[in-house]
User: What shape does this take?
Amino acid sequence: MSQLTDLTDLTLSGLALALKEGRATSREATEACLAVIRARDEELGAFLLVDEERALAAAEAADVRRAHGAARSPLDGVPVALKDNLLTEGQETTAASRILSGFHPPYDATVTARLKAAGAVCLGKLNLDEFAMGSSNENSAYRPCKNPWDLTRTPGGSSGGSAASVAAGACFGSLGTDTGGSIRQPAAFCGLVGLKPTYGRVSRFGVVAFASSLDQVGPLARDVKGAALLLEAIAGFDVRDATSVERPVPAYAAGLTGHVRGLKVGLAREWFEASGLDDEVAKGLEDAKRALQDRGATLIDVSLPHTRYAVATYYIVASSEAASNLARYDGVRFGQRRGEEMGLLPMYEQTRGEGFGFEVERRILLGNYVLSAGYYDAYYLKAQKVRRRIADDFTRAFEEVDVLLGPTTPTPPFRLGEKVSDPLTMYLSDVFTLQANLAGLPALSLNVSFTESGLPVGAQLIGRPFAEEGLLNAAFALEGALGLEDRRPPA
Amino acid sequence: MTLTRDDAERAAWLSRLALCDEDLDRLTEDLARIVGFVEQLRAVDTDGVEPLFHPLSLELRRRPDAAEEGVGRRGLEGSMGYEDGLVRVPKVVE
Assistant: This one.
């Protein structure tokens, strides 16, 4: 096996160590990733844009810094990629929509700038469901994305490219966004660690907004330590994001001990009793429970009674916020423009009608419908009250336990085309992930098992606000106990 | 209360979305099903419950009222109507 192949099999923290110890250079790692992209991405569809020149220049600069003992961070020289709803200055950013075709942002998102400052090498922009609306990456206006573990199946969504690229070895880590599960579900479907931070932990400045009270940027990586390193680099107060919280950023990676003796792990009965929970997913959860127990954690039954209302609550809230956020796409100041010759209102209507895909239109319509006069109280206001009930369920549960353990998704990765024609079926598959967004809680998914046919199964951990350290540590313990992190998709 | 084609058409107008008949029909169906689904929230007792608009109880931060560097006019250069530092649009007032 060539050295190039060996390199892309490494985890993010494995590469970081290799770089530190001089066993690999950033240039080698970057070239190895680019080779994978060249060989596989036409089929895989993980990338919407690859900038080889820029990446190799960044890699060389990283190697020079390291040679002078001036590495900026453990991420210096590590090839990563960004979901294409994160602004990158001068690099086309489309949010996988036609309406932003050709849009070159005049500034970087804060998370982009922070990764660059840490020395990470950005390979390019990753595919997603249009405007982050979807659970399968099938709503991308540009191209589908496939699961490296089985190319007939979805990598999940909306951060499908973020997950597929890491799982395929095309990059060592990526950033995604999570509004209803869009980091965690693709992480589960692709056998990765994916973390949605506490709302307010990571800046949303320069993130194409979907639902402003739900959106968060987070890392995807093969290993917990890798995810922790990425989180450390991007987290922290940002004066340009009014919802950013002033709290110091702990050393997430260094703090991983794997010690969980005495940790109280809650099992929400509504999750485990959910009809539609696939047997092989349930088995993966059993493995996870056993592993934690073996390491001294205590399992405690809890209840989250409003679980069954999460999907309805989420779709009202998220669609309403999306309808408001996407009003800016009117063809005036940026993005595509159509119908100008017909007048102002037609220009808006044509631009948007042609520029937005079906799922996006569906959610905008739903949002404006439930916000409109006569319906606002019955739908939007009601949903926000149920949202408080959902958040209160968690507050109560966290009086008894430290973290919650449960499924990330009801099923293993489904086949492309299986659900996309029926929106409701797709929406219902988000049932386990939505609640953490509604309540603003940190949540992660990690791989805990494989199905008989070799598909990844993830489990989810949810923690108290700003308790990412504990969450990552519990995941680190599980990862160590289950020993699955060396498994790779078929070549 | 079932969502009608008129309701969907009005929502499309509010959304400034031009839709062909076929799309409007399909979206009416989809919306009717989704709205029918979310009706289940009526069953939840929310008497005396304050809405949770936002997970954080935030106070709007303020900064000194002083000029700062921003994206400025550079941000307009991407507009398809950009001309000499301005943005051309159709007549707003007839």
Remarks:
- The first helix of chain A runs from residue 3 to 9.
- The mean pLDDT of chain A is 96.
